[in-house]
Design brief:
The protein has about 350 residues and is of the alpha/beta class. The protein has three domains: about 5-70, Alpha-Beta Plaits; about 80-160, Met-10+ protein-like domains (GMP Synthetase, Chain A, domain 3); about 180-355, 3-Layer(aba) Sandwich (Rossmann fold), CATH 3.40.50.150. Helices cover about 30% and strands about 30% of the residues. The chain has helices at about 15-25, 50-60, 80-85, 90-95, 120-130, 185-195, 210-220, 235-245, 260-265, 285-290, 310-325; strands at about 5-10, 35, 40-45, 65-70, 100-105, 105-110, 135-145, 150-160, 165-170, 170-175, 200-205, 225-230, 250-255, 275, 300-305, 330-345, 345-355. A hairpin with a 2-residue loop joins strand 16 (about 330-345) and strand 17 (about 345-355). Helix 6 (about 185-195) crosses helix 7 (about 210-220) and helix 9 runs parallel beside helix 10 (about 285-290). It is globular.
């Protein structure tokens, strides 16, 4: 319920300094939400500052005033997973609860240790309580495998489904996790690649899936052509829906088929930029990337895995050798880096390569 309280009114530029100072003086009211408008920040107080505190405030906060203001009460913090499960699991199992989860739309995906497999249901129900925007909890019980790169899931709690709508950088995507591979952990890469594209480019996304690279590129650029290729018919169905959903019909062109065949038959020497997001097998398709790259050269975004004792430098060497075998050469690698840890001593990497 909203409550009126004495507050410190300061210009928004002094917000962080005011919060720190009010905390140091122990006069800020933690039960009320801080408020702001176009020009000012309002910090609720528990009491009238003393004369000595007023001197400090005037000395450090230019233009501050004490004002009565109406504040909403702070919502109580959501309980953590260990707090909810504290009375249901013994300490040694609480200690190995999964600390991270992937969120795709309103679906949470967790990977549960073997020791907790019999407790999947209560863990899933606890996640629903800690995450109010989640409607379904799935557990990942198998690694990505098969031609279509699909992981194996088990239902843990909530609505029994694998389809959802995922939002990312202003785009929406229909996703079905049981039918099409999709990783929210690559969202920053989707944006990075989209930002690096120049107007007028022709791009091929060789393993497009539901379209997170292709659609975002088209959304950010009015004068591009993106050929989105995938061998999975279900992926192409979702991709077509996502193209319509995001209104990029005139810039993204879905193609069902094998990447090697498509580049040879339809896109030979046609593209300025190639996206190769197939970490397990992308090295096998370097010849296709070279075939579709314009004779004048272009950029390849290559994704792979590095497992110790392998190194990023070794991946660069193998990629360069594959490019030379295809009759082209690597001019340079503007970017070569680890993106994320995928397992102990294993990382997903990206190479941005300029091909001539």
């Amino acid at each position: 319920m909203p409550r009126e309280s004495l507050s410190i009114q300061v210009p928004k530029t002094l917000g962080q300094k005011t919060l720190a100072l009010a905390g140091k003086l122990e006069i800020s009211n933690k039960e009320l939400e801080i408020q702001k408008n176009a020009h000012f920040l309002y910090v609720p107080l528990t009491r009238q500052p003393s004369e000595e505190e007023m001197i400090i405030l005037k000395d450090q906060l230019t233009g501050f005033q004490l004002k009565a203001h109406v504040f909403p009460e702070r919502k109580p913090p959501e309980k953590t997973l260990p707090e909810i499960l504290g009375n249901q699991l013994p300490p040694h199992l609480l200690a190995i609860l999964p600390r991270a989860l992937d969120i795709v739309g309103d679906i949470a995906i967790i990977q549960i240790p073997v020791e907790l497999r019999t407790d999947e249901k209560i863990i899933g129900e606890a996640i629903l309580k800690t995450r109010r925007n989640i409607r379904t909890v799935l557990t990942k019980i198998g690694a990505v495998s098969g031609t279509y790169r699909l992981p194996e899931f088990a239902f843990a709690a909530g609505e029994k489904r694998t389809n959802t709508v995922h939002k990312e950088y202003g785009c929406k995507y229909y996703v079905d996790l049981e039918k099409v591979y999709f990783s929210p952990r690559l969202s920053q890469e989707h944006r990075r690649v989209a930002v690096s594209v120049q107007e007028g480019e022709t791009i091929v996304d060789l393993f497009a899936g539901a379209g997170p690279f292709s659609v975002l590129i088209a959304k950010k650029h009015e004068n591009v052509k993106v050929y989105a290729v995938d061998i999975n018919p279900k992926a192409i169905e979702l991709l077509k829906r996502n193209i319509r959903l995001n209104r990029v019909e005139n810039r993204v062109f879905p193609i069902l088929g094998d990447a090697k065949q498509v580049t040879q038959d339809k896109l030979f020497g046609a593209t300025d930029r190639v996206i190769m997001n197939l970490p397990e097998k992308a090295i096998e398709f370097v010849d296709a990337a070279c075939a579709t790259t314009k004779r004048a050269g272009g950029t390849v975004h290559f994704y792979g895995f590095v497992r110790l004792p392998d190194t990023l430098e070794n991946v660069k060497l193998r990629f360069s050798q594959a490019v030379e075998k295809a009759g082209r050469r690597v001019d340079r690698f503007p970017i070569a880096k680890n993106i994320r840890e995928t397992a102990p001593y294993e990382w997903q990497i990206v190479l941005d390569a300029k091909i001539l």
